[in-house]
Design a protein that fits this description.
- By secondary structure, the protein is of the alpha+beta class.
- The chain contains three helices and four strands, in the order E-H-E-E-H-H-E.
- It has helices at 16-30, 59-67, 69-78, and strands at residues 3-11, 35-42, 49-56, 82-83.
- Helix 1 runs antiparallel to helix 3 (69-78).
């Protein structure tokens, strides 16, 4: 069953541009894990607010993407650039 995942990101002070570049680089790896689409949107009203939307055919592909080495490295490298 196909599904769409919405991941909200909020950049820390003065890290919005850096986080945007990092998220856009990360979206390319989604295809490797079977993503049908993977987009990042930046709010026009709040430059620190982002929304990543990823569409997968099944939950297992998403889990492989989320726990994969690229996303793990992203979280380690950029953990100070965003808040949950």
């Amino acid at each position: 069953m196909a599904g769409t995942v919405h991941i909200p990101w909020y950049a820390t002070l003065w890290r919005g541009d850096d986080l945007e570049h990092a998220l856009n680089a990360l979206t390319a790896t989604g295809i490797k894990y079977g993503a049908k689409s993977n987009r990042v949107y930046r709010s026009e009203e709040d430059a620190h607010k982002f929304l990543q939307i990823i569409e997968f055919d099944n939950k297992l592909d998403y889990q492989r993407y989320w726990e994969g080495p690229e996303f793990t490295q992203f979280r380690q490298r950029y953990s100070g650039y965003y808040q949950v």
